[in-house]
User: Which sequence fits this backbone?
């Protein structure tokens, strides 16, 4: 009778890879790249160190990083929105996107030991989900960034779950884009859920693919932008649609403070 249980050699090989990848990741990330970011002068240099450090780490972990559609990124300011399946997604996007992109991260991450300090040194933005006043201040700062020619990268689901499935997209990124009059670029990440997915503490080998779609036309209707971006990502991510069961489950601080006038 057929069975899906991996053979003993396959389990041993998987265990060896988990141990090896964990060792490489910890040494490269926490003992090499993060200290360099902490002492490096200038935000641009810190972001370069982060990007090339991630690429080095993936290479040493024997993880291919495949990027499609890099030419679709506009030369001017834009907002990249992508799916989110793993804590590794931010690292992968750091390696893929040009240094002009500022990541928007949940406020709680800023208090994480070590990692929070590193992210602040890289000039990333934090959004406070629990405070409307703080969210408003942060939203105005992001709008200034966009008007000054910078670009943002936002995980549009706002979080990730252990189970595969594309969650509902929050409105905030699209309200910012509509108000600033800049394009939205949908990006799809594949492979990170298997490599180190939500709820897992074990590395499992997987190639990682980042698919950058053409920018969506600039428009003033945030909901239409949101739905169009999500449709692109859903068609490319290879995961089921989890929007119906979870729609409206979590607040969106940017949406609460970035409604177009």
Assistant:
């Amino acid at each position: 009778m057929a069975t899906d249980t991996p053979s003993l050699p396959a389990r041993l090989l998987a265990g060896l890879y988990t141990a090896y990848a964990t060792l490489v990741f910890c040494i490269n990330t926490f003992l090499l790249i993060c200290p360099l970011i902490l002492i490096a002068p200038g935000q641009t240099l810190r972001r370069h160190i982060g990007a090339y450090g991630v690429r080095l780490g993936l290479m040493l972990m024997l993880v291919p990083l495949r990027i499609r559609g890099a030419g679709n990124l506009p030369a001017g300011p834009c907002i990249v929105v992508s799916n989110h399946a793993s804590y590794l997604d931010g690292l992968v996007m750091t390696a893929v996107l040009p240094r002009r992109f500022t990541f928007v991260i949940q406020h709680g991450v800023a208090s994480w030991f070590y990692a929070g300090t590193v992210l602040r040194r890289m000039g990333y933005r934090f959004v406070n989900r629990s405070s409307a006043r703080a969210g408003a201040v942060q939203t105005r700062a992001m709008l200034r960034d966009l008007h000054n020619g910078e670009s943002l990268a936002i995980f549009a689901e706002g979080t990730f779950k252990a189970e595969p499935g594309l969650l509902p997209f929050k409105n905030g990124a699209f309200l910012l884009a509509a108000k600033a009059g800049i394009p939205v670029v949908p990006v799809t990440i594949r492979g990170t859920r298997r490599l180190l997915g939500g709820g897992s503490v074990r590395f499992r080998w997987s190639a990682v693919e980042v698919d950058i779609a053409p920018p969506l036309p600039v428009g003033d209707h945030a909901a239409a932008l949101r739905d169009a971006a999500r449709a692109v990502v859903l068609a490319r991510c290879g995961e089921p649609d989890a929007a119906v069961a979870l729609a409206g489950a979590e607040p969106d601080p940017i949406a609460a403070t970035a409604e177009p006038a």
